[in-house]
Amino acid sequence: MAEWRVLLLGGASGSGKSALSYPVARARGAALVEVDDLVVALQSITTAAQHPALHHWRTRSDDGMSAEEVTAAQVALAEAIEPALEAVIANHLETDLPLVLEGDYLLPAFCAKWTHGDVRAVFVHEPDPAQLERNYASREPDAGVQRKRAADSAHYGEWLAAEARRHGLPVLAARPWADALDRLDLAVRS
User: Fold this and answer.
1) What is the rounded distance in angstroms from the CA atom of residue 179 to the CA atom of residue 152?
2) What is the distance between the alpha carbons of residues 143 and 176, in angstroms, rounded to a whole number?
3) Which domains does the chain have, with CATH numbers?
4) Which of 26-51 are b and which e, b meaning 16 or more Cβ less than 10 Å from the residue's Cβ?
5) Is 7 in contact with 100 (CB distance < 8 Å)?
6) pTM above the 0.85 mark?
7) At 132, is the pLDDT very low, low, confident or very high (cuts 50, 70, 90)?
8) Which whole-number Å values give the CA distances from 61 to 21, 36, 64, 66, 149, in the listed order?
9) Residues 67-79: pLDDT tens digits?
């Protein structure tokens, strides 16, 4: 695995970033922080009135929302948590403890501000809504068919991939899965 102190691993829900982050963190002896856990922690100490974007998905459903509206809500939530993400990254850089920070609320513009010798960022991309739907079915078999969620995630993933490329950050195709860890290592090195 290439040298880094902090690895930011972004991508849309269902793209495979969590499945990549665990073996990378283990191999590197790094802490693993899932951004979703930070969101839950921040929601527990704030209210929807204080931080509406942070609480969007707790107070609303995506029913009736277009993929563009879902992406806009995802981006707004991601921007709302950036101060917490900054604190976590800065702490790991200051204490020299390696970190893998993964989640769909990592935005390319945010990651680009941090990317330098010690911090790397890679965005995992799965463009096929049908594959995302299969991924959800595999990891959440009791949730039933999640076609809209998969379509919304594919749209958000396309936006993330385009933004990552615009900011000069590597975009890693989720498939083929068999060599994804090797391809991630190469992406981190570039």
Assistant:
1) 26
2) 26
3) 6-189 (3.40.50.300)
4) eebebebbbbeebbeebbeeeeeeeb
5) yes
6) yes
7) very high
8) 28, 17, 8, 12, 11
9) 999 999 999 999 9
- Token readout for 21 is 């982050």
Pick the closest to residue 89 from 111, 122, 109, 117 (CA basis).
111
Rg (C-alpha) for the chain, rounded Å, is: 16
Residues in the chain: 190
Query: pLDDT tens digits, residue range 50-102?
Result: 999 999 999 888 889 999 999 999 999 999 999 999 999 999 999 999 999 99
Structure tokens belonging to residue 166: 């615009």
Six-digit token pair at 168? 């000069």
Name the residue with tokens 């976590």: 88
